[in-house]
Amino acid sequence: MCGLICTNYHILQEHVDLHLEESSFQQGMDGVQCSGDRELAHQLQQEEDRKRKSEESRQEMEEFQKLQRRYGLDNSGGYKQQQLWHMELEVSRGRMHPSEFHSRKADMMESLAIGIDDGKTRTSGIIEALNRFYQHTATDVRCVWLSAVVDHFHSSFGDKGWGCGYRNFQMLLSSLLQSDTYDECLKGMSIPCIPKIQSMIEDAWKEGFDPQGASQLNNKLQGTKAWIGACEIYTLLTSLRVKCRIIDFHKSTGPSGTHPRLFEWILNYYSSEREGNSKVVSTSKPPVYLQHQGHSRTIVGIEERKNRTLCLLIFDPGCPSREMQKLLKQDIETSSLKQLRKSVGNLKHKQYQIVAVEGALSPEEKVARKQASQVFTAEKIP
Questions:
Q1: CA-to-CA distance for 61 and 39, rounded, in angstroms?
Q2: Fewer CB within 10 Å, N- or C-terminus of the chain?
Q3: How far apart are CA 2 and CA 55, in angstroms?
């Protein structure tokens, strides 16, 4: 225990006992110290966990609020509020005279009151102009299939940044309204304004269509900037007794993330009406709604080049009227078609969905499709 040498047994015994007491005391102190260290470590860990959970909750809330803003569900107002705000901004910047502001505001309020689009973003006659162009020009094209007549609608101040789905519905409806096939189910309809389309989708939800989709959008679209996609387009068309289906190209089917199967599907859709060997085939097929993450467009035709490659013809609601009207010139410049033409290499989003119209539904078929929409499933390719 130590180097002490004792000649007396009792002194030695007392000295040894002292050593033993000291050792026992030290062990006890070490135990207390160890217990205290463990308690401190536990408290520090708890504090770290609390801070981490608090930070995770904060980040989750931020992400949720970003998603709400992105998809128009943040209670910041809808079409009317955004249109007025932008027009007031234009007046404050000196780009719009106050008298024009009041005139446009009155026009907007009238349009909203009757539920009909004011037509200020509409361009008609493009399909007919494309027909003429392909008849006389486009020497590199072996054959082109064009949809039935369709008007182009682009986003306005009121729906900039979120209204593409609604504008594509207007395009599709503009074509259906000119076809006898849909006379009975669309009787007396005009092209609705965006708040009216929102109201129509809400009515379809109330009828019982797509309860899951309705729930995700809080059963409310009017007065919001909520985005709509393929499911809402399908729901609205079906509620109007228009027969359609959703096809989901859920993964790429070609090199470098491309979707050649999508192009083949569109070719089959339009080319089923090919007549003879004419270069330009004006079909009676309605345009096709095309959706991908963050945006939607309208497919109005497809080219087959002489080298056998395919090229979709697409109306984009993000393209303003002044650009679309270049296609109405007597001699369309090939460069003007660049905004419409999309090759396989131009469509490389991870996933695409299309809504294709196929005729009218009977009242009984509408009821059956409403029932089927309780659990929404799309056809998948591949």
A1: 33
A2: C
A3: 57
Which positions are catalytic?
A: 164, 295, 316
Cα–Cα dist 379/90, whole Å: 46
Side chain identity at residue 156, one-letter code: S
Q: For the stretch 80-99, what's the b/e string if a residue is b when 16 or more beta carbons lie within 10 angstroms of its beta carbon?
A: bebbbeebeebeeeeebeee
CA dihedral 186, 181, 356, 161 (to 10 degrees): -40
Taking each helix axis as running N to C, give the angle between helix 79-92 and helix 194-207, from 0 to 180 degrees, rounded to the nearest 10. Answer: 160
Tens-digit pLDDT profile for residues 294-317? 999 999 999 999 999 999 999 999
The pairing of strands 152-153 and 379-380 is: unpaired
Amino acid in position 333: E
Q: Which DSSP symbol is given to 116? A: B
For the chain, give the number of residues: 382
Longest CA–CA separation in the chain, Å: 129
CA distance 174 to 315: 13
Distances (CA, A) of 263 to 127, 142, 190: 20, 16, 32
Stretches in the chain below the pLDDT threshold 70:
1, 23-32, 34, 61, 64-74, 273-276
Q: Which two tokens stand for residue 148?
A: 């039935």
Q: Residue 330, exposed/middle/buried by CB under 10 A (0-12, 13-18, 19+)?
A: exposed
Q: Is 228 within 8 Å of 210 (Cβ atoms)?
A: no
